[in-house]
Amino acid sequence: MKTHIKLFAGTIITASLALSSAAEAVHTPTPLGAEKTPTNFVHVEIKNLQGETLGRIKDLGIDLINGRIVEVLVESDSSLEVGGKVVAVPPLALMRDPSNKIYRLNASREVFKTAAAIDLASWTDAGRSDRVAAAYYLFGQEPYFLEEGATASRKDVRPKVSLGYVERCNKLVGMPVGNYPGEQFGKVWSMTLDIPKGRILSVIVLAPGNFETKSVIPAMALGFNTARNALLLDDTKQEYADEPRYIYTKAAFGNVATSQEEAFKGPHTLVALEQGDSYPDVDRTLLIQQNIRVARIYGRNVQVGTINGRVTLRGWVRTAADQQRIGEIAIAASRLELVDNQITVGRPVAGL
Q1: 22 pLDDT above the threshold of 80
Q2: For the chain, which domains are there?
Q3: Fewer C-beta within 10 Å: the chain N or C terminus?
Q4: pLDDT above 70 for 55
Q5: Rama region for 94: left / alpha / beta (φ>0; ψ in -120 to 50; rest)
Q6: Is 334 exposed, middle or buried (0-12, 13-18, 19+ CB in 10 A)?
Q7: Of all residues in the chain, what percent carry a pLDDT higher than 70?
Q8: Model pLDDT, residue 157
Q9: Dihedral (CA of 30, 36, 38, 42) sign
C-alpha cells in the first residue's frame, strides 16, 4: 500500500515535503535542514520542569509493526551519580521546548533515578511488554499495548494492541531491506519520526548505486526476517518500483540539503491529503491502511487521510472492484457519510 509520507527533516520534528498542486509546472525542492538521520537525536538534552538536567537521548526503541516509538532511551546525567544508567521514557511523557532545543519531562530527579536500568547489551529482554509497561506507569503514561496475559476490549476508546518486536533505532539504520523471495531493495537510510506523538510513519530506503535514490515505505508494511537482522517487504521488484522516489542533493556552497520527489514516470502533481494529529484521526487512517493490506488489495497508489473524523481516499487502483472494496474498508472503519472516495480506476495519463 503506497502512502505519501513526509520525509524526516529536523532533529526533533517531522517536516513536510511540499507537493505542488496540479496547476503548478515547477516542482520546487524542499529544504531539509542540516540534520536528516535518527542518529541526530543522540545527545538531545532532557530536563525536568524545574530545569534540572536528567540526561541525554541515547537511542529510541521502535515497534515497527505498530508504527510506534515505544520508548526514548535516556542516558542519565553524571550529576545523578547513577553511573550513566540508561532509562526508558515513554515518548508521550516528553514535552518539546523548541526555544531551548531540549525536551522536558515531568519527573523529579529522585523519581528518574528509581527507573529500571536498560542493558543495551541484552536488548531482546529489554523489549518485554511487562518491562516496558512498568516504565510507562512510572512516568504517568498508559501503555498503548497489551501487557502480559491481557486481552483487548472492544469497549475501550483506543483498543490496545500486542506489542511488536522492539528494536533500537540505531540498529535499524543501515539494515538491509528486501522481499520474501530474496530480492534486495537497498538499506535503511532514515525514518520519519515524531517523538512527541510517539510515531514512526515511514522508513526511507537507499537503493544501491551512485544515484542516491531513496524510496519511502510505510513503516507498518515492513517486518523482520527470522534472524531480525533485515527488513522484509511483501512486494515484488516491479511493485517496489512504483514507490515514490526522492532525488537528494547534499548541502554545499552555503546551501542547505534539498529533496525533490519524483514519481515512477515524471513528477507528482498531487496536493497532499490533510491528516489530523488527534489520536482518533491517526488511528483511523492506520486502521484503514492495515485493512487494505490484510485484504490483499493492490493499493500501492492509494492515499488515506483523516481529519476531524472525515476520511478522504485518493489515488488510483487497477479495477472497479478494488475501488469499491477500499471504500467499504474505509466505511467499516468509520461511517458512510464520513467517507469521501475519490479513488479512480486505471493509471493516470502522465502529464495530466
Answers
A1: no
A2: 1-37+175-271 (2.30.30.240), 40-138 (2.30.30.240), 279-345 (3.30.1340.30)
A3: C
A4: yes
A5: beta
A6: middle
A7: 72
A8: 58
A9: negative
| Beta-sheet pairing, 302-307 with 310-317 | antiparallel
Residue 82 grid coordinates: 547513577
CA atoms of 242 and 16, how far apart (whole Å): 21
d(CA 26, CA 243): 21
| b/e 20-40 (16+ beta carbons within 10 angstroms → b) | beeeeeebebbebeeebbbeb
Q: Does pLDDT of 260 surpass 70?
A: no
The whole-number pLDDT of residue 135 equals 93
CA 236 to chain centroid? 22
Enumerate the H helices of the chain as residue ranges. 109-114, 123-126, 129-138, 169-172, 237-240, 279-294, 320-333
Residues 71-78: what's their mean pLDDT? 94
Q: What are the cell numbers at 222?
A: 515492513
Among 225, 209, 211, 266, residue whose Cα is nearest residue 242: 266
Cell (9 digits) for 140: 504517568
Percent of the chain exceeding pLDDT 90 equals 26
Distance CA 71, CA 17 (A): 26
| pLDDT: which is higher, 330 or 15 | 330
Hey, what's the cell of 12? 526533533
Task: For the beta carbon of residue 13, count every other beta carbon within 10 angstroms.
Answer: 14
What does the alpha-carbon distance between residue 222 and residue 218 come to, in Å, rounded to a whole number? 7
- Grid cell digits, residue 208: 544501491
